[in-house]
């Protein structure tokens, strides 16, 4: 980890040498956004989509960001992932205060930080826990304000789970660090429609596009968690998880059908779409 390449305000260094002020608004207020861009053999997956989402988050936060500097930072980090699998974590905060204050100064210099991490991505099915979604009301912003996710996921960890599936009043929102899809009892692929409570996942969009004009085209809408009791397969999507099925879901009667043929078909369609996106990045 210490040798991991990082960048702060345009200056490359190792991660253990990066120093951030305790008055960074990322630290004091979570007044910051982030992106995680996956790389496969040194090639980014859907770089433009990740970058566009970062711009959208900055706009929703009224942050004045010079994205030419952001591009330069990410390109320098990407050069260290040549021919490797891994990801780039990139964070932008509103800046560093002279003294902690809710009202930020209009002339703050935007603070930029990121690192490149060689990594392998999980592929084995995992367990999850069903829980109430008590996060703040604008989860469509990819903000570093993730305390609700952290508390819920660590409670799930104590029960042997690696994720949570959240809901509001019995209607599914998303997972702690993923979007959620499932087959209902009629073999329809379902997922929550985008709203201010749901992050527009890049992998989510890849899957939905891949399944268009197939027998598994996705039905987006209000998804009742009671559907899980009769679902043969629930799975997560994210940049680092790809497609990851759930073996069980604590708090429901869900039973995973490991060899469910429709899910195998969906996986094949998704993998083909992934390869097309990676080829397009060359």
Structure overview:
By secondary structure, this protein is an alpha+beta fold. The protein folds into two domains: about 5-120, 2-Layer Sandwich (D-amino Acid Aminotransferase, Chain A, domain 1); about 125-280, D-amino Acid Aminotransferase, Chain A, domain 2, CATH 3.20.10. The protein is built from six helices and 14 strands. It has helices at about 25-30, 45-60, 65-80, 145-155, 200-210, 260-280, and strands at about 5-10, 10-15, 30-40, 45, 85-95, 110-120, 125-130, 165-170, 170-175, 180-185, 190, 220, 235-240, 240-250. β7, α4 (about 145-155) and β8 form a beta-alpha-beta unit. α5 (about 200-210) crosses α6. The longest helix is centred in the last third of the chain and has 20 residues, at about 260-280. It starts with a strand and ends with a helix.
Q: Could you say what the CATH architecture of the largest domain is? A: Alpha-Beta Barrel
Low-confidence parts, pLDDT < 50 over ≥5 residues? none
Topology-level CATH name of the largest domain: D-amino Acid Aminotransferase, Chain A, domain 2
What shape does the CA trace take?
A: globular
Indicate the proportion of strand residues: 25-35%
List how many beta strands DSSP finds. Answer: 14
How far apart the termini lie comes to: 28 Å
